[in-house]
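Hi all, long-time lurker, first post. I run a small reading group and we've been trying to get comfortable going from sequence to structure in the token notation. Rather than ask abstract questions, I figured I'd post a concrete chain and ask someone more experienced to write out its structure so we can walk through it together at our next meeting. Sequence below, copied exactly:
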Amino acid sequence: MEAHKCRGVVIRASALREADSIVTILSPELGRISAVARSVRKSKKRFMGGVDVFECAEFELNAPRGSSNLYNLNAVHNRTPWPRLRNSLRKFALASLAVETAEALSHEGDPDASLLYAPLRRVLSALDSSENSQQAHEFIVYFLLETLRECGYDPTHLPFADADNIRGWWEEMLRSERPLEAPGEKQVSRSFSVLCSFVEDTLGRALKSRTQLGL
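-- Answer (accepted) --
Happy to help. Here is the structure in token form:
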């Protein structure tokens, strides 16, 4: 059975039977994949008690067999769990939206999904260390811009009210390839709303994390 080692971010974890889970991983090497983690909720040696969403780590996997597209997850190393994401409701909500967006805009087995790994990892790190709500929202706005661009969209051409007051900030962030301080709080909230709505229109459905968490 072919073995793989890859970096990745866990974007979904679903219970399977009593102790197993299916985890979905966004990886720069393999794109978006799913793997069975057997006894993950009981193993203290291989998984240290579990594998959860947001975790960035190195994964040891066995390749799928036969007609199955599921890898087998054998071990997890060098974890970065981003603990502060779970200590703040706002950070948790924005991280959940970032993970949901990356999952929704990627497809299982598509190697191009690997392009979304770096933006997702960067925004989780940035949100984990963010100092206030506006800064956290600036990070998520840049993530949405960067992710949409990687998926082939150009959000800087979106028509909307007050676009002239916001588009220049977007373009400067994309040129400099990093989040920048917004001209004002209004521009941040407007940008967040416009970009989330565009993602939802593209998907043909609402982002659950935005609805459930009141974003």
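A couple of things your group might point at:
The longest strand covers residues 3-16.
The CA atoms of residues 102 and 116 lie 7 Å apart.
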